[in-house]
Amino acid sequence: MADDGALMIPHMNNDVRELQDSARRVLAGLGLAADEAASWPRIADLGWLMISTTEELGGLGMGLAGACALQVELGRQLATVPFLPAVLAIEALAHGALADKVQWLERLTAGEIYVAVPLADCALNVQRDSRGALLLTGTLLAVPSADNASHVLLSTLNGEHVGLVATAQPGVTVIERATWDTTRRLFDLQFDAVELEEHHIVASGSQAQALAMRLAVQRDFLLAADAVGGAAALLQMTVDYLQARTQFGRPLALFQALKHRCADLKAQTEAAEALLLDSLGREQMDSADGIASAELAGKAAKQLACAAFATVAEEALQLHGGIGMTSEHNCHLFLKRALLNEHLGRAPDSYETGIADAFLASCQPTCASIQTL
Amino acid sequence: MVAEDSAQILRQQVRAWLQANVPVGWRQAMTNSEQAAFVQLQRQWFGKLSAAGYATPHWPSEWPGGGRSLADQKVIYEEVARADAPRLILFFVALYHAACTLLECGSDAQRQTYLPKILAGEIWCQGFSEPNAGSDLASLKTRAERRGDNYVINGQKTWSTMAQYADRCLLLARTSKAEVPQAGLTYLLVDMHAPGVTVRPIAQITGDDEFAEIFFDDVEVPIEERIGEEGEGWAVAQATLASERGLTLVELSHRMRYALPLIAAQMRDSGREQDAALRRDLGRLIARVDATCALADRYLLKRISGEEAAGDASVVKLYYATTLREFSLLGSRIAGLAGQYDRGFMRGATQETGNWPVDFINSFNWSIAGGSNEIQRNIIAERMLGMPREPRSWQMTAR
């Protein structure tokens, strides 16, 4: 065939590939759902928290695609470390306007401090008091490992501010909300008139809105990556089980009724991965239009990947039979993570309707009527 | 980047050309049309495309219209899909199956003889499936007996698309009974106008007769018309089947994406644009269609870079076929009772027309033909996931 110079996959450059391969080995060494306290220093030492930041800011410059490549591997091993929110906080600070952001980024990317970010859509009420100070009230939901966080990154409901608030202070109540998924630890953070200090404001006005939108897009892509990794690992585990388990004098993997279900799951997993990688390679978030386009792509990637992971998990439990219902088997860890993933990010149905709303709006005036076709 | 610039320039050229040349109103013209009108439209459109050099972008550079990079080919297919041009259904087997088989496995003499004929508009068909050899293709029984300088063909082929118009047939026939059924097969090019060839179109459930049966009754085929060696037909047939993967699925996936406004139009026409449940379903479908395009694109990239793995093509085909089914089912559900009224069918249309019952039925072309979904699932399970093959004989497992 003739030359194919233009058809490169920019996000799949060799650096990312190599890093992903080495991440797979490291995480396999740590094991499934490895201990958070033991794993966190390890991933910090390996420089993974520097992955997305530009080289000027001391990072590895591999962007969101690099972070997603790592998150795929973290998802594969049901990692308990809050890499995903940590990357979001680092991205926020890198794109924000804190005077001392370089110092913040140094400490964050080294893993010295951890700034948490809520993984559900939520924001806080803000009011100015008589001194003119900004006071925050309300609840942040689904904040991972908040007990280890020095600060939390939050948005205000009026869209005016994105900022940092120290978690250990009067007025902030940190409440652990145990979930069925035991591979993540989520917290509610209640705020009762807590000050958002001027020097902790990361972005204001239209920049705050753009930043919040950017973070939501990145969160969607990272959740998609987590689901892609989880689905692939669980499918492999299920196929391995069907190969090993013998009934009626033959391996279960020989039964076509089961093979075909695994094949369907493989196709869905591959599709979710292809959409994720294609979008990461295509989308550029360097303009308002770019962010709007990436928002839609992120919604599609998240919806498809989380649905695929949930389907694989549901089928995996059925295909494992009774052993999957026992707590000592790992099957349920994947299932519960898959179920939680569907509910992180935006409200589940809003992904589908959001994609459809944008599409219907875009083709409104020019769409041919069926009758004229 | 320079390559991107040149792709962009090509894109604009192709787009402008298509805008000026896609037959206006071809969809209306092809609805409930006579066969003759269909053949005429196909011939005209093929003539225009090949004169412009856009009919054979996948051929090597020594042939007119050939020598395009895969990136450029992809641009052309995306633009053809975007312009909603007619598909070259009548010439599809000639341009893809026949050409790719000749290029990969044919002799120089065969290439010099047949590729110019294909460029001049010869119509080809494929004679693989038989009434008793569908998914189990290697069990086929059509015989090719060597008599002097000829093979003599006897047997019956079926599901042969456009055979009633075809000048030539890609035939897979049995030359010997071997232990392994694949080993006794030989690949021949058969003149469809030769004595002893009878074609009977098959009435399909859409009202169309896109495919036909072919009967061979002592049909003589000179041995020079054999591709590859005697007994090596199975390997040649794999080259034929591989040709419809890759770019074809890129084109079809992108066509499906450009057809999504049909669903939007149906929602509006049915007064159900604000229906939240339908919007959810549409959003889900859009994500699936996007993923289908991404899968097809990635498959093409893997082929280019030599990273194609066993089963990759099956994943693309299975996912495309199931998404296409969902597309037609969603349209049908929105259209409701009115969608069930018979509005005839469109000859030579794409997979998506907004005539939902027909689109639904046509979607089975992709879940049955070219290796059914079930065969694709076997391939994925066995070659990608490493699950064991079925025992060869059911009798072995009877006890």
CATH architecture assignment of the largest domain in chain A: Up-down Bundle
Order of strands in the sheet with most strands of chain B: 1-4-5-8
- Outline type of chain B: globular
Q: Largest interface: which pair?
A: A-B, 58 and 67 residues
Fraction of residues in helix of chain A? 40-55%
The whole-angstrom Rg of chain B is 22 Å
Work out the count of structural domains of chain A: 3
- The name of the CATH superfamily of the largest domain in chain B reads Butyryl-CoA Dehydrogenase, subunit A, domain 3
* Secondary-structure class of chain B: alpha+beta
CATH fold title of the largest domain in chain A: Butyryl-CoA Dehydrogenase, subunit A, domain 3
Low-confidence stretches of chain A: 1-11, 365-373
Number of helical stretches of at least 4 residues of chain B: 13
| First-residue to last-residue Cα separation of chain B | 65 Å
On the 0-100 scale, what is the average pLDDT of chain B?
92
- Strand segment tally of chain B: 8
Query: Percent helix among the residues of chain B?
Result: 40-55%
The whole-angstrom Rg of chain A is 22 Å
User: CATH homologous superfamily name of the largest domain in chain A?
Assistant: Butyryl-CoA Dehydrogenase, subunit A, domain 3
**For the residues shown, what is the average pLDDT of chain A?**
93
Beta fraction of chain B: 5-15%
Strand order of the largest sheet of chain A: 1-4-5-8
